[in-house]
Q: What sequence folds into this?
């Protein structure tokens, strides 16, 4: 008996008698061949009390430098946004935290309604008619869109912008290798997808095209032009979108995009060292019956009351098996709930205000940093919440390490002296000025040689 | 003995419903307060101008025209306009329309709805875990990498396989990785095999995964004892077989007595053996997939390892593999350096690549690791032993209550952690289907078992009580099952029209699929 099981000696005796066996061992002996019985104890430590486990996990947490411990400008796919208290409170409610997937709709109306509300919010954000109830996360959502395209047109090639998040590109390649589709990468030019190379890569055998908005370097792409280039091909147009930018950027549905997917972390989710958050998946109505994952729909009960159910389940693995539109089963319902609570918390006006704040602070940060000696912009494209710089130093990692010693994480090192810097509403002008001071000093130190010992 | 009110009317559930608000009188229609509280969405609440969010001050000079006009959004997304009090009340009220594990029993087969210890929520919320950026440099994420390394070791030990990747996001994601690893393994040997064998008892994710990974599904029959039909397997095992995907114990709750022979047949033709870990909760510390001959195992951390289900996720689906598949594991992997520090290794030339962003669902790893630390070697074994005990006890209690002639056990005598009943005699003799029984259980305050799965059992009821339920709960549930059968013998229409006490009653699912309304019109 552990603290999570409850069988007393008396229970055990009574239960064995009811079962009609003399011992617990007999139940296993009669079912498991001796050759595959484990007769040794698992090579793991013994159990520990709750307070001991807490202390151990706290000690591990203390070995990490979190966004609580330093002033961070790291982004690159996940961002240190403020998570409002209502999200913690609602996501920790038993009624949301501990139910199963809503296969019994009569007792799952809460979860189903939240999915319906979430789908509505994602549909509004993206300007696309249909959204599912969430997928795992961003990069695998890109790959899932690829599988939708493959099922739709059966063509043999994916065309992907190099501006996609590197993890998205790698994930797409991993999935596509499984069903033998080649991925052709189109390079960037001046920070955005090279329009000529893009157009040239798309042909009659193109199953889907993929770009990111904003792209990995923070640049806003000309989404309408990229979509239009695929118009005369069979290709499904897929955009990976950072949803927090959709208060200011045109929704993908108005730019000719067929499928918009992305990482939902910036919508009220913790960083959690990369997950769990949620992925979103929205599309034009034409793809409704090829969507992966759960979809909640509105209906009525026998007495005429409004209700919600999982719908269009004939797409799904538990019904269609090998003919399913995806193998996805468990996804990210709780995180998607957090997403719709966050969007409701921001609200119609707040969502736009937050986007404007990010645009202005990001612009300020970009100009301030680019004015430092030895620092220049990697590109001049418009940006919303993230931008790339080039540091004229030998070792960007050493510059970052030097900044971190002073409590500032300036961002992600990119190849060839690049630095990717991200903003959230938690980074104020004062924080940006502090970053400029610390980064400027670290770059200067290295350029004058005084920072060399830091590199070691 | 009838549990029902002697004076019940037709259609009356005969179960006392506890009103949520004592001051609300019971109406003549017997509608419960939750039923009277018709669903309204967040988009139907609020008023223009209301808000919960106060934007931080614009503390930098505002510059116009930063985003070219053509790239800008023209009209705002029509998001809700509510204050924080409205927001909280809305979602708290909505939450009350859910059944959940903290308030009741969930004997849902192959889903392992065991208790979710609250310690796990506390430790996962520590800022050192919850606010750790996934791109933080490894020297500043030593605690996280150590935790992942320790979890990998523990999971590998439970499975009896040495190499673990925590990256996949859920069981089906782990399955996809497993099949892609198999493919990479065969390709590395210059072979392009096309078939993957799955038994007809398999979870739907297995065949769906096989197709996604570019293979063809070949079904293997089930024998009279509920295990793999070894003759059928032998006939279908040839040099085109890449892999056999198996759940053991399977979805009938049967531990395959021929598992060693099955493994030999598949290995002899050069195939790999994949273990669907959905049922791992039956065998922790008792029998190990690696020792059974499996090459690849996935774990559902949201099943055996207590990540809360969240109404459909998040989960995590790590996998463990044997030596011959290790070179193909996804990037990055956690390495322990000689000096005791940890690093992320991206330099894996034979890797299949990535399955998702970053390092996986770390927040889930924290919870599952805390669970393993709490239980230790003996506790994990106790969990599986008790899960199997509880399943056998529930099965025996149902027999004691004379339900066997109506809902007999489909296969076997004893079971592992779950078992499958067939409602076929009940349907024939009482006129109620498994679905009706399930819906009537809702009125008794239970989440029903999994119904109509596995597919090869007519009117199937798949029950998994888990180890965290008390004997009293199992007794009460068995009595409810028996009472519903007795009630149906008297008047089948009661179950046929159930439920009565839930926030909504049976819903028009066909209509929902025919005319899909999947977002709020605004």
A:
């Amino acid at each position: 008996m552990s603290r999570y099981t409850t069988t007393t000696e008396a229970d055990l005796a009574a239960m064995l008698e009811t079962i009609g066996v003399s011992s617990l061992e007999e139940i296993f002996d009669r079912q498991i061949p001796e050759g595959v019985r484990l007769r040794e104890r698992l090579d793991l430590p013994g159990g520990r009390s709750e307070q001991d486990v807490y202390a151990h996990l706290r000690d591990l947490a203390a070995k990490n430098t979190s966004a609580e411990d330093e002033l961070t400008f790291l982004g690159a796919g996940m961002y240190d946004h403020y998570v409002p208290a209502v999200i913690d409170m609602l996501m920790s409610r038993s009624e949301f935290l501990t139910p199963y997937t809503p296969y019994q709709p009569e007792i799952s109306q809460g979860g189903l309604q939240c999915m319906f509300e979430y789908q509505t919010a994602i549909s509004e954000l993206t300007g696309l008619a249909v959204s599912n109830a969430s997928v795992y996360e961003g990069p695998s959502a890109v790959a899932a869109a690829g599988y939708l395209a493959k099922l739709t047109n059966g063509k043999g090639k994916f065309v992907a912008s190099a501006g996609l998040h590197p993890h998205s590109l790698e994930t797409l390649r991993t999935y596509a290798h499984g069903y033998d589709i080649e991925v052709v990468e189109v390079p960037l030019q001046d920070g955005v997808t090279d329009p000529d190379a893009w157009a040239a890569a798309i042909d009659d055998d193109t199953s889907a095209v993929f770009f990111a908005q904003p792209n990995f370097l923070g640049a806003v792409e000309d989404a309408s032009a990229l979509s239009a280039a695929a118009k005369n091909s069979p290709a499904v147009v897929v955009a990976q979108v950072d949803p927090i930018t959709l208060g200011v950027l045109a929704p993908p549905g108005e730019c000719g995009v067929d499928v918009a997917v992305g990482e939902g972390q910036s919508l009220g989710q913790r960083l959690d060292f990369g997950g769990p958050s949620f992925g979103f998946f929205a599309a034009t109505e034409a793809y409704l019956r090829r969507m992966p994952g759960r979809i909640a729909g509105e209906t009525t009960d026998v007495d005429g009351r409004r209700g919600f159910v999982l719908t269009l389940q004939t797409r799904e693995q538990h019904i269609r098996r090998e003919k399913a539109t995806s193998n996805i089963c468990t996804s990210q319902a709780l995180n998607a709930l957090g997403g719709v609570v966050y969007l409701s918390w921001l609200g119609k006006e707040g969502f736009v205000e937050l986007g404007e704040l990010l645009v202005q602070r990001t612009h300020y940060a970009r100009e301030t940093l680019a004015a430092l000696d030895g620092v220049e912009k990697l590109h001049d494209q418009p940006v919303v919440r993230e931008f790339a710089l080039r540091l004229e130093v030998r070792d960007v990692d050493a510059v970052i390490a030097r900044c971190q010693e002073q409590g500032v994480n300036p961002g992600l090192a990119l190849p060839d002296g690049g630095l990717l810097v991200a903003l959230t509403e938690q980074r104020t002008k004062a924080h940006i000025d502090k970053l400029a001071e610390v980064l400027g000093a670290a770059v200067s130190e290295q350029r004058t040689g005084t920072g060399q010992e830091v590199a070691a | 003995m009838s549990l029902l009110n002697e004076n019940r009317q037709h259609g009356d559930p005969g179960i006392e419903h506890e009103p949520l608000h004592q001051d609300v009188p019971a109406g003549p229609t017997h509608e419960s307060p939750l039923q009277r509280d018709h669903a309204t969405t967040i988009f139907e609440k609020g008023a223009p101008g209301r808000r919960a969010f106060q934007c931080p001050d614009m503390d930098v000079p505002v510059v116009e025209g930063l985003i070219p006009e053509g790239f800008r959004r023209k009209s705002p997304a029509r998001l809700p306009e509510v204050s924080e009090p409205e927001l909280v009340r809305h979602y708290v009220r909505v939450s009350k329309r859910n059944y959940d594990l903290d308030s009741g029993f969930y004997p849902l087969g192959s889903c392992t709805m065991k208790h979710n210890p609250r310690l796990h929520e506390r430790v996962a919320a520590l800022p050192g875990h919850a606010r750790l950026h996934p791109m933080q440099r490894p020297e500043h994420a030593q605690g996280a990498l150590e935790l992942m390394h320790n979890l990998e070791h523990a999971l590998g030990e439970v499975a009896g396989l040495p190499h673990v990747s925590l990256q996949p996001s859920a069981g089906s994601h782990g399955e996809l990785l497993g099949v892609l690893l198999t493919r990479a393994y065969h390709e590395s040997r210059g072979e392009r095999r096309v078939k993957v064998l799955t038994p007809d008892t398999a979870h739907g994710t297995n065949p769906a995964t096989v197709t996604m990974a570019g293979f063809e599904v070949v079904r293997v029959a089930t024998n009279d004892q509920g295990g793999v039909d070894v003759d059928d397997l032998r006939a279908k095992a040839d040099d085109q077989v890449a892999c056999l995907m198996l759940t053991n114990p399977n979805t009938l709750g049967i531990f395959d007595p021929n598992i060693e022979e099955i493994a030999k047949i598949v290995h002899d033709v050069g195939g790999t053996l994949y273990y669907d870990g959905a049922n791992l909760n039956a065998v922790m510390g008792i029998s190990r997939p690696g020792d059974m001959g499996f090459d690849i195992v996935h774990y559902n951390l949201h099943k055996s390892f207590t990540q809360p289900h969240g109404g459909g996720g998040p989960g995590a689906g790590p996998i463990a593999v044997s030596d011959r598949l290790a070179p193909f594991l996804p990037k990055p992997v956690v390495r322990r350096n000689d000096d005791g520090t940890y690093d992320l290794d991206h330099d894996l030339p034979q890797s299949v690549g990535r399955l998702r962003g970053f390092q996986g669902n770390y927040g889930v790893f924290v919870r599952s690791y805390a669970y393993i630390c709490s239980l230790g070697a003996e506790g994990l074994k106790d969990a599986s032993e008790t899960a199997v005990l509880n399943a056998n006890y529930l099965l025996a209690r149902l027999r004691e209550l004379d339900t066997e002639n109506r809902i007999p056990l489909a296969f076997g005598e004893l079971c592992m952690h779950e078992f499958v009943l067939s409602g076929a005699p009940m349907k024939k003799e009482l006129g109620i289907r498994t679905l009706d029984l399930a819906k009537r259980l809702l009125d008794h305050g239970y989440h029903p078992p999994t119904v109509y799965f596995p597919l090869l059992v007519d009117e199937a009821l798949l029950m998994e009580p888990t180890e965290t339920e008390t004997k009293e709960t199992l007794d009460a549930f068995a009595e409810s099952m028996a009472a519903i059968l007795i009630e149906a013998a008297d008047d089948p229409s009661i179950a046929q029209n159930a439920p009565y006490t839930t926030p909504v009653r049976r819903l028009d699912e066909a209509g929902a699929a025919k005319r899909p309304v999947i977002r709020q019109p605004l």
